Amino acid sequence: GSPRRLLLVSNSTLHGGGYLGHCQQHIQSFLGEKVKRVLFVPYALHDRDAYARIAREKFESLGYGLDSIHESCDPVEAVRKSEAIFIGGGNTFRLLKALYDNCLIQEIRKRVLEDGIPYMGSSAGTNVATISIHTTNDMPIVYPPSLQALGLVPFNINPHYLDPDVKSTHMGETREERIRQYHEEPNTPPVLGLREGAMLLVEGDKATLQGVTGARLFLRGKKATEHEPGTDFSFLLTDSNLQNL
Predict the structure, then answer these.
(1) For residue 53, what are the domain limits?
(2) Proportion of the chain above pLDDT 90, given as a percent
């Protein structure tokens, strides 16, 4: 089995709470006592210094030191020495471009998939953990060399998933319609719509939905299905299984 350990969070801030407040117990349980320092990747936001300060304050309050990769003169070496990686939210295109520009795609993959260090993502950081960023909600403000992402899981995620508002007069596509359009293209993988307050815990070949809200699963050619916290999504981790769904 794979040694990978992932905590993929839909959003950094839940209405009424502070930064990572809604998932801080999950973070502590996920990182445990072995991890002393976390490598933070703030590439999704323009002001990396300010972003690192916010993240550092939060992780220190939870008992972990935090180093921001943008402060390192050698980002690749920083990944190689890291005990755990946290990639924060912001613009997914900006984030993925920076990961490519700094030659970090393969390095992060190796550390997570081969060495088994914990990987945590929120929002854009969750998007880049998947096969591709095709199902991000963000505007393509910069142009990464590819939309292919880290591929730590063999499917895609739509963070901040929004259900249609029956009272809304907005005539644009709903999130569900946009994901369906994605699945009109051939050979497109499943998409897990993670509502705000939801997260996916991946431990080896086991994936479990956690948090306070549910998720919606979209499979190409099938009707979307609704899932509550506690759902076992391990089947999504096996490529061969996906062909039979």
Answers:
(1) 5-236
(2) 86
Total structural domains in the chain? Answer: 1
Classified as helix, coil or strand, 52 is helix
Q: Count H helices, E strands: the chain?
A: 8, 11
Is 243 a domain residue?
A: no
Q: Is residue 241 part of a domain?
A: no
123 carries an active-site annotation: yes
242 located within any domain = no
The answer to whether residue 12 is catalytic is no
Question: Is residue 199 assigned to a domain?
Answer: yes
In tens, the pLDDT along 17-50 reads: 788 988 999 999 999 999 999 999 999 999 999 9
Which one from 10, 12, 123, 132 is the annotated catalytic residue?
123
CATH number of 89's domain: 3.40.50.880
Catalytic residue among 72, 160, 227, 234: 160
Order the strands of the 65-68 sheet from edge to edge.
Answer: 65-68, 37-41, 85-87, 119-122, 5-9, 198-203, 206-211
Catalytic residue among 68, 122, 134, 138: 138
Question: Is 74 a residue of the active site?
Answer: no
